[in-house]
Amino acid sequence: MPFSLKLLPLAATAADPGAGSMLPSIIMIVAMIAVFYFLMIRPENKRKKEAENMRNSLSVGDDITTIGGITGTICAVKDKTIVIETGADRVRIEFTKWAVSSKGTQTTEDVPNTEDKKDKDKNKNKAKDNKDGKDKAKEPEKDGKDSKKDK
C-alpha cells in the first residue's frame, strides 16, 4: 500500500496536464467576448435606442432629413408614419418613421473650391504656352470689359 500512495500524486499530475493549460485559453476567450461586447455591441444598441427615441419624439413643425436625403417640415404625425412638406411648392409626402435620419436639416458637405481648379488649369495653359515659345504677358488680353477700347 505505501507504494501505491506514493505513485498516486504522480499519476494525478501526469493525467491532468491539459487542465492547467485550458484555463488561460478560457480566460482569453471570455476576455475577447467582453471586448467585443463593450466595443461593438453596446455602442450599436445605444445608437439604436437614441434613434428610436428621436423618432418617437417627432412632432409637427420639426425639420427632418430622411435616409434618402429629402428634407422637409413635419405636417402630421401618425403611429408609424409621418407626413412632411417639402420645398416652396408645399409638396406633401408620407414616410414611415424609420425613414427619418435626423431631426433638423443636415448641413451640406464641403464642396471643392472651383476657383482652385480654374487657377490650376490657367497655370497649366501658361506653362504649355511658354514651352511653345509664346509669351502671354506681351499679348493684351481681350475680354468683354474692354469693348470700348477695341471699337
Write up what this structure looks like:
The chain is α+β, with helices and mostly antiparallel strands and 151 residues long. The protein is built from 4 helices and 5 strands; from the N terminus they run H-H-E-E-E-E-E-H-H. The chain has a 5-stranded antiparallel β-sheet, covered by helices on one side.
Strand numbers in spatial order across the main sheet: 4-3-2-1-5
Mean pLDDT equals 76
CATH class of one domain: Mainly Beta
Structural class computed from helices and strand pairing: alpha+beta
At CATH level 2, the architecture of one domain is Roll
* CATH topology group of one domain: SH3 type barrels
- Given the C-alpha coordinates, what overall shape results? elongated
Order of helices and strands: HHEEEEEHH
Beta-strand content: 15-25%
Number of strands: 5
Which structural traits does this protein have?
50% helix, alpha+beta, single chain, five-stranded antiparallel β-sheet, SH3 type barrels, 18% strand, elongated, 151 residues
Q: How are the SSEs ordered, and which strands pair?
A:
Elements (H helix, E strand, L loop, with lengths): L1 H14 L1 H40 L6 E4 L4 E7 L3 E6 L4 E6 L3 E4 L10 H18 L15 H4 L1
Antiparallel strand pairs: 1-2, 1-5, 2-3, 3-4
